[in-house]
Amino acid sequence: MNQVPRHIAIVMDGNGRWAKKRYLPRIAGHKQGVDALSRCVKSCLERGIGVLTVFAFSSENWNRPSDEVSGLMDLLVVALTRQLPSLNANGVQLHFIGDRQRFSDKVNSALVQSELSTAGNTRLIFNICFNYGGRWDIAQAAQKLASRGEAITELSLDRAMALAHVPDPDLLIRTGGELRLSNFLLWQAAYSELYFSDKLWPEFDEAALDNAIAAFRARERRFGQTPEQVSGLHRN
Known about the structure:
The protein is α/β, with parallel strands linked by helices. Helix content is 45%, strand content 15%.
């Protein structure tokens, strides 16, 4: 395998631990995480990645302290305001994936405006999963089909998923040393290559991304076939 992945998905874990190690409030770690994400978007553009999907806020994160949750919401709005000119200049198309019902009008307005502003960009599709959960995604897809009276099949369910506008991720990265998916892209990651990094998300840089891509390129993706079929050596 010598190509770069078309679609990279990332669980950005470790912002709070990064801050704690430095005796800083957790929100300081999240601010550093935004900077790391900006670097990651730039790196993906430079490497010809077509789709980047990140786990920014899970449906379980509402259980965190209220001041941290409100700080994350404020940080999202501020980051969008600051980053939109750069995202547009670099051809990045934004999509926010998740249940928006619990967001304030201010947050929802910021999400809609940023999506509309970048809708015509084509260099990189950038999906930010915010108030997202893999189980929620499967449930909302099934509910959508049921409301239409459509049969629930693998194909119809796939087309009703929140990420139906992009191919499934080729490579799923999790930082922070944890070895689980934590309810992220449970449907879409069925055949993703998994890569776990001990680096906390604010420390995840270009070199770390290149290491993940190198690991991906070294793997043989068979999708149920034999190694001989994949290499083109199989003869009937």
